[in-house]
Amino acid sequence: MAADSSMVRFFLMGKPHNVPKGLTIQKAMEYAGFRLLRGCGCRGGFCGACGTVYRVGSDYRLKVGLACQTVVEDQMYLAQIPFFPAVKAAYKVEDLPPTAETLISLYPEILRCVGCNTCRKVCPQEIEVMRYIAAAQRGDIAKVADLSFDCLMCGLCASRCPAEIVQYHVAILARRLYARHITKPAVHLAQCVAAIDRGECDADLAAMVAADSARLKALYNAREIEPEDLEAAGQE
Amino acid sequence: MRLPYFPGCTLHSKAQNFDASARAAALALDIVMEELPEWTCCGATFSTSADSAMGLVAPTRILASAKDAGKLLTLCSFCYNTLKRTNRVIATDAEQRRKVTTFIEEDYQGNVQTVHLLEVLRDEIGFEALAARVSKRLEGLSVAPYYGCLLLRPADEMGFDDPERPTILENFLASLGCTVVDFPHKTECCGSFVAVGTPDAAERCSARILDMAVAQGAEMLAVSCPLCQYNLDHAQREVQAGRGRTARVPILYFSQLLAIALGCEDACLHLDAHVVDPRPRLSKWLGQQSQATALV
Fold first, then answer.
1. Which of A169, A230, B101, B129 has its CA 20 to 30 A from that of B120?
2. Which of B150, B213, B158, B215 is nearest to B186 (CA)?
């Protein structure tokens, strides 16, 4: 315990640092004097660069978090995993059928899954990783895509997998297959692109380019908003 | 009756005809097979390594997810064998139970009874009652029951039927109106997953079974295992190319025959997925379209 109650003591790769309470791990490291070059990306919980493993005090459980999102705790022993070796198959998604055979031929190791669920336990996004690998084994591409949607590709699942699976590469392949072959094509999008190609938006665009800053601000404030956005804005 | 149902990977991929025909037939008998909301591969093979717990982890988690119902229905012989034998370990071996349930963080004592659809038909419905509900008796169709290995063995753990002289499939087929063809190789091995590494060896195992069944007058074989179905059916591929063996005998899942006899729609049978096409022989019982289609 740090002597001052407004401070906490955490251990970065075994070395103790005293920092103020309430900082994220990332800010705590910077407070302690580190300049972050790797293992630090968006600082907003989206890029997956700052995967961190830690234990607290004498609790045997291994915990994980994104350093930019997780608040530092007293007696936290941590290390960052900015990179973990992973094999990635090369493919052209348009040439691949969306089947179990595709996933298994590119990533045969998915059949080695023993169902230990360790991947789920170390996912800072709380994704059902084991469940989507099970879905991958039986070719349920839509389910893999759905379950893995929030994956940031931080790599912590792969770091702990006893079957040496690189789950997030399997998942992004499934999401690509899903987008390419399974989802219905967006008809209105194609129509909009065709309208742009025909020059139907040229005059509006030229007017926007010519507009001054005050005019742009007025246009922005008067823009069309989706009904659900309006509702959300009304609640705030 | 509602029963939690574990399909297993194969019934969601290569053996969808097994899954769909069983679901439709069960529903016709007022049994709702409720697929577990989440499930993984059961491991496919029960690990006989006594001091390793890893092979028990996945099947125990699957079993635990059905603990409130106390029963788990399955169809594939591999899944049935793996789940049942795993549960026996969890129920009887306190040390393994502690190790595995602590690891998966589930309080599970081994209370789930793994049941096969054939057992439900025998024990819950009864073959006499089943015969009374059959709308299309398969009269004149000579079917050889084929058990393979995993439904029956090891007998003291599976407790499914007599391992040497089983009768459950025979009684089932008789209740549908089939002529039951007894043959001595009904509990021999089809070659199992030897088919992956040395397909010739598996094919020899299957050919021996097929020859004997045909010699005894079988027009079809009824099975309950996707791998038996694959091996016995694919061993006859050569015949289609005009080479080798001459016997051509369709290999059906017992659930497909059940669905036909109960008047389920043809769509649930997926009879086009077979190497040896069963449709010519079954044609007089087929033709059950969905009512919606018929109305249009």
1. B101
2. B213
> Is the Cβ–Cβ distance between B112 and B43 less than 8 Å?
no
Query: Per residue in A176-209, pLDDT tens?
Result: 999 999 999 889 999 999 999 999 999 999 999 9
Show contacts of A1-8: CB within 8 Å, 24+ apart.
A1/A74, A1/A75, A2/A74, A8/A72, A8/A73, A8/A74, A8/A76
Query: pTM for this structure?
Result: 0.86
The yes-or-no verdict on residue A236 having pLDDT over 60 is no
- Binding-face residues of B in 94-113 toward A, CB within 8 A: 103-104
Which is it for the CA torsion B183, B189, B195, B198, positive or negative?
Answer: negative
Of the candidates A116, A128, A138, the beta carbon closest to that of B57 is on: A116
H or E stretch at A166: none
The domain spans of chain B are 2-117, 126-294
Give the domain CATH number at A40: 3.10.20.30
Q: Are B120 and B145 in contact (CB under 8 A)?
A: no
We report the CATH number of the domain holding residue A103 as 1.10.1060.10
Q: Kindly identify which residue of chain A lies nearest to residue B16, measuring between CA atoms.
A: A138
List the single residue in A130, A134, A138 with the smallest CB-CB distance to B13.
A138
Instruction: Please name which of A152, A149, A153, A121 lies closest in space to residue A135, comparing C-alpha atoms.
Output: A149
Q: How far is A164 from chain B (nearest CA, A)?
A: 15
- Residue pointed to by tokens 């609640």: A235
CATH of B126-294, one of 3.40.50.300, 3.40.50.11810, 2.40.30.10, 3.40.50.2300: 3.40.50.11810
The arrangement of secondary structure in B2-117, i.e. its CATH architecture, is Up-down Bundle (1.20)
Q: Select from A109, A179, A178 the least CA-distant residue to A139.
A: A178
Q: How far is residue A48 CA from its own chain's centroid? A: 5
Tally of domains in chain A = 3
Asked if residue A236 is part of any domain, the answer here is no
Query: How far apart are alpha carbons A43 and A71 in whole angstroms?
Result: 13
Contacts of A140 in chain B (CB under 8 A): 12
- Could you give the 3-state DSSP secondary structure of residue B34? strand
Query: What is the residue type of B229?
Result: Q
Determine whether the interchain pair B104/A117 forms a contact, defined as Cβ–Cβ distance below 8 Å: yes
ipTM above 0.95, yes or no: no
Q: Calculate mean pLDDT across residues A15-41.
A: 95
- What beta strand segments (E) does B153-204 contain? 179-180
Claim to verify: residue A99 and residue A170 sit in the same structural domain: yes
Residue B149 C-alpha, separation from nearest chain A C-alpha, in angstroms: 24
